[in-house]
Specification:
Blueprint (H helix, E strand, L loop, with lengths): L11 H14 L3 H11 L2 H18 L4 H8 L3 H13 L3 H11 L2 H14 L1
Length: 118
Amino acid sequence: MKRRHIEPEVDSDRAERLLCEALLALRSVEEMRAFLADLCTPAERESMRDRWSVVPHLLGGEPYWQIHEATAVSITTIGRVARSLEQGAGGYALAAARMQAKPRTARASGKRARGAAS
């Protein structure tokens, strides 16, 4: 059988923009979890959780071995996240800064809402 190259209807930049818009349209942690569960494989979600879990440690200046012991994330992954923090697009740092600036009560109320919905 001969393979044919098929051009997608939407170019990759536009497709990525649409994905970002879909993410921004979600309004709660529960909605985001449902979306990620549909969008990503369990392994992809685990990889994202691992990467995000080391960001505060790296921003706090902890050594890699200490981050590994605290998170069980591989030294290789920790190094990749550190490289992204230093040379990447700035997304990790921006999200971390916004999470720190977010009032603690707003984060706590999200937990209450999830518990109340159960």
